[in-house]
Amino acid sequence: MKYVEQVKTIFLFLLIFLSLALTFTIWTFTPTFPQIESTPATEVALGASKAVDEVVQPTKVLYHSEEEAKGTTNQEQIDLLLGVMKLWQIHDITTISEDTPVKKLTSFMHGPDRAAIYFPGPVPFPVIDSIMNITDDSMPEASFDRIVVAWGEASETDFMLYFINSKSGRVHQGNVSTTELENLKNQVVEPAFANYSTYITSKEVGVLPIYIPESAEKLNTYRYLQEDIPEQKLVDGLFENPSSVTTTGDLVNREYSDESDALMNFDESAKSVNYVQPQAETNDPAIPSELIFKTADFINTHSGWTNDYRYFGMEPLNQKIDYRLYQDNLPVFSQTFETDLEVVWGIEDETEKVFRYKRPYYVLESLGASGSQELPSGAAVLHAIEHMDIEPKNVSEIVQGYTMARDEKEPERLISLQPAWYYKTNGIWTQLPEDVLGGDQFGLE
């Protein structure tokens, strides 16, 4: 019996050790579960995704000397200048004029030894900063539609850039180091004066000078097979919960809706789709730069850049922004088909959402045929506008563009794009009529 206490002690020690071992095992045990594969969310791609600098682009550049103006709308030639500018460090952005008189504004844009870069709509500084390199710690939200590279206005250290809003007359100035001048002149300016087309203007047309190519030019013509984006792709790409979408109507007038009251309908004649979320309607204005950034992000969510759509203008007070179809760097207009991507933003439950989204659902992809056509000279265009039954000073822009229509020979199968001259008055684009250049006069939004 003398060993009983020792045995009890040893047994108690073993129990304590076993308890600690079991506790440690429980704490550190990791169960092995069979792996369950998650089902990935369906990604809808109508076309391509694009960066902001691919959809916010200039459409024309003019190079001015004492004797002449040379210009281009060719994308490669415009990109040559932009490629050089993207290497610059732009600094000290300042406002130098809020309401510049027309004569002074003209000298800023069209004086000698400078290049004027044209954008089709107002571009806010934060957007251009995402494309170029502005080194200032802060910058204005102000917008401009012209950038002037004034290499003739150079000090020992810097030459000038002017950011001009041609509608309001506001002018900002920026500086670039003169060390960039030699590269600019050798790579861009000298080839431009040697090789680009001569541009002319008329004192009778427009409040500000409007420069267009002096001579007649041959432009391409196109015939595309009619191809459409499948409707189900648009349903999957635009509705938050496609499985809850219901359809009403017939093959000609179809309407889709869901439990959130979002609606989507199709216009067969214009080949357009209109999506509306009524609960997101608002009267709040938009910040211009945010309008561009968030719209690009929204369209990228469904890879909605099905063709070459470019930023064309905005109405910040209405939260509205437009992107227009381009062909060969020229805008496309149509009385038959929708040629704009239009987005109107709103707010629902304190969250920014798209209120309305209208866009084409055709795709210009399979080329049926191509050719060329000579457009009348710019001299003939200016002469015609001077003598038309309109006030020439009310004309704000003149461009070469494309007219999209159903093909005359095969209207059910082909879409044709034909070059034409267009002018803009009071916000309306109009094709120059046939009785002066060949064609009926059409007003286009």
Automatic annotation (TrEMBL):
| InterPro entries cross-referenced by the UniProt entry | YycH, YycH/YycI_2
What residue ranges are annotated as transmembrane? 12-30
Q: Name one Pfam family in it.
A: YycH
Residues of the Regulatory protein YycH domain: 5-432
Per UniProt, the keywords (alphabetical) are: Membrane, Transmembrane, Transmembrane helix
Name of the protein in question? Regulatory protein YycH of two-component signal transduction system YycFG
